[in-house]
Amino acid sequence: MRIFRTRVEFEGREYEEETLWSGAEPPPWGPEAELKVAGRAVARVDAVDKVTGRARFTDDVVVPGMLYAAVLRSPHAHARVRRVDTRRAMSLDGVRAVLYRGNAPSIVLPNGEPIFDRWVRYYGQAVAAVAATTEEGAREGIARIAVQYETYPFVIDPEQAAQEGAPLVQPCGNRPTGHNPRVYERGDPRQGEQEAEILVEQEFRTPAVVHQCFEPHCAVCWWDGPDLTAWTSTQAVHAVADALAAVFGLPRNRVHVRAEAIGGGFGSKQHLGEEVVLAALLARQTGCPVKLSLDRGAESVATGHREATVQRVRLGARRDGTLTLIDHRAVIGLGACGREGMSVTGPSRELYRCPNVHTEELFTYTNLAPARAFRGPGYTEGLFALESAMDDLARRLRLDPVELRLRNLTDYEPVGVRPYSSKPLDTIYSVGAAAAGWSSPKSAPSHPWRRRGRGMATQIWGGGGGPPAYAWIRLEPDGTAVVLIGSQDIGTGTRTALAQIAAEELGLPLESVRVEEGDSLYTPYGPTSAGSQTVSSIGPAVQAAAYQARTALLAIAADRLGEPADTLTIREGMICHGAAGERQLSITDLLRPLSPFALLGQGDRGPNPAGVAIRTFGAHFAEVEVDIETGEIFLVRLVAVHDCGRVISPLQARSQVAGGVIQGIGYSLTEELVVDPSTGIVLNPNLQRYLLPTAADVPGIEALFSGEIDPVANSLGVKGLGEPPIIAVAPAIANAVADALGIRLTNLPITRARILDALQQIREQAGARVRTRSSGRSARGH
Fold first, then answer.
1. Which of 263, 346, 741, 755 could be 631's S-S partner, Cβ–Cβ 3.0 to 4.6 Å?
2. Can you tell me the distance from the alpha carbon of 714 to that of 316, in angstroms, rounded to the nearest whole number?
3. What is the pLDDT averaged over residues 285-311?
4. Alpha helices per DSSP H over 562-592
5. Distance in angstroms (rounded) separating the CA atoms of residues 584 and 576
């Protein structure tokens, strides 16, 4: 092992880091590679377990003697906790422990939020927790806790929070207290404005939206002497183990974090959450295992959200469509103590060729739960504004929206002035436009009172992955293999893709490979499943481990057969000889006489290539009908074309695209965390009032891929796909609505009420113009 420096991109941010790497790399799978398992559409390897209920989610975990926990949450948006009386709760039969500020240790979560602080900074913040022998008893226990609060003024709107005299959200953790914008500039924006023959300027607003994972946040914790075991629904078993060790002052090898099956995370489960810490504290206090599973109300108010933004975009262009100016400014609400990492204006700095660019990001703190990363954080919000403004510019220039984007393509990354490892965006536009029938006349609306429109938008994101990531492979005497990795499948199908990579490199049938992950104690380190980095980080490590194991296996076969190892190959579990692939011996027959033995392969992810930018690109095309009487939007179809390098598992890839698009539909049309401005109380903390898309809301989704392998990015030629499918959905739909109505709606979600209000304003303006013309004619007649 040696120390290397490498550049890594994660969720729109780039940084350099040191990493350990063995220096061993397998032969890359180039574009010409003839693959037998990888790249084939297969069912998920855990599909049967999922549909039969055998898959074990955290809430399925039951331990003898287990207690159940519930959390008392603040009814106020901003208050000081003056007094907590737990006597009536402790007197309840079955209640074993109560935790609150008076008896809990001082603990701060990785996002800076303290556990049981004297201040509550948002509605729903934890104030106390109860452990009892039944779930009902725990809920009854928290109902018996009496809390005295002193309320304070609060602020919800991120723009209001930046104004002088706004209520101060009490600082927590290492959160800065001022409002200092993050500024980027290149060229001369004033000169760009002067050179512009057409200027468009618009303000956009995006709401706070909630992750609403299929599986709520949950933890089951117990102590065995000094050892802490935590089952939890997490995107990062190793990161959570690190954080738990730090919180409880434990050696890292005394913490065991497990996550077998996970029902989604979307960014809300990237870090150590309060549910794990509270379950561990209560388990330590009672000496019993404790389960804490959040209900849908707590999911809605206490597990984070996509940040709300207010954005202003100004674009300048010559009449031929050449951009001369991009000016993008955003105010970003981070909640009570979110992190200043989400780059809303990142796409404006990089997506288009423009010599004069100015971006500003002003982060403000509000009395909401801390914002957390949410699938494509920052870019999803920022591209809604940028791509909507680009569409308006195209209409002003009377240019096709695709043509405008083609005229401003850049073949290098303009911030760091580096070439892209690959960028098939022109191909993506061509494929998407053909699939969407972009150049053909629009079909007539299905009803006379509907208007039909089309829209498109571009996507950019990272997804190149990087180190550190490790994999171990153990070959068994019967010719099967076990892959041990430290990542976790959060519902995306990565377990299947990684099994395909291992099977391909080993020369085994897919059914002979088992992938074990989601265990911090018995697997090598794996990265957080976030930033669209899992397959592009872990995948090359799995390939390297499989290559090492296969090399060792072929050496054994060469000894047995008396043939040079370089004349042997492995195909479908058979040792084959020569170019014709003549079968010689099965792996089972080779290894079984040698049992017992240990044949291991170890692999690690190498540094990213220097001097290039690794990005994923895509484009979405939407067709809609809008009912001008009711304001309802009907999605006719959505075409999503993505560049993710080599597609390892096509069925899972199409599923990822469909899921991201559906989530984007909710962000576009229905989802919003509604907060009462007079009380700070969340008004829709349930799935009855928080409107997620249903099957009736989803049109046909056509998922297509550029087909271009990226041999520069890594040895597999892969790039990430987890987040890109959501990023361009909202602007594509918004642009289609604008095309249908001739009206630009600038606030998300695009609800019926907003459409009807906009139509009414147009009618009133048209009526005022008619009255003005009539008045003028009457005056001239006199």
1. 755
2. 38
3. 97
4. 587-591
5. 5
Which uninterrupted H or E stretch holds 132? Answer: strand 126-132
Tell me if 240 sits within 8 A of 232, measured CB to CB.
Answer: yes
Spatial CA neighbour of 266 closest among 226, 220, 233: 233
Q: Which of 339-343, 675-679, 762-766 tops mean pLDDT?
A: 675-679
Order of strands, edge to edge, in the sheet holding 513-516?
513-516, 481-485, 470-475, 599-604
Phi, psi of 675 (to 5 degrees): -120, 130
pLDDT at 782: 46
700 half-sphere exposure, CB direction, 13 A CA radius: 7
| 34: annotated active-site residue | no
Exposed/middle/buried for residue 387 (C-beta within 10 Å: 0-12, 13-18, 19+): buried
| Contact of 408 with 389, CB cutoff 8 Å | no
Residue-level pLDDT at 175: 64
Q: How far apart are CA 36 and CA 500, in angstroms?
A: 9
Q: What is the rounded distance in angstroms from the CA atom of residue 633 to the CA atom of residue 755?
A: 9
Given this model, what pLDDT does residue 177 score? 59
Q: Which of 113, 150, 723, 764 is catalytic?
A: 723
CB 60 within 8 A of CB 284: no
Using CA of residue 401, residue 403, residue 408, residue 411, what is the dihedral sign?
positive
Rounded distance between C-alpha atoms, residue 330 and residue 360, angstroms:
6
Structure tokens, 639? 């075409």
Residues 102, 117: Cα–Cα separation, whole Å:
10
Question: Residues near 432 by Cβ (< 8 Å), separated by ≥ 6?
Answer: 438, 456, 619, 620, 621, 639, 640, 641, 704
Tell me the CA distances in angstroms from 539 to 231, 308, 470, 491, 588, one per residue in order.
25, 34, 9, 17, 26
Burial class (CB in 10 A: 0-12, 13-18, 19+), 83: exposed
Encoded amino acid at 703, one letter: A
Number of residues that this document lists for the chain: 782
Residue 488, SS3 per DSSP: coil
Amino acid of residue 99: L
Classify 677 as helix, strand or coil.
coil
Other beta carbons within 10 angstroms of residue 439's beta carbon come to: 9
Question: If you ran DSSP here, which 8-state letter would residue 511 be given?
Answer: G
d(CA 421, CA 191): 32
User: Token pair of 561, please?
Assistant: 């057969």
Q: What is the dihedral of CA 551, 553, 554, 555, to 10 degrees?
A: 90
Q: State how beta strands 599-604 and 582-586 pair.
A: unpaired
Assess contact for 332 and 345: CB atoms under 8 A: no
Cα separations in angstroms, 594 against 6, 305, 428, 477: 42, 55, 52, 8
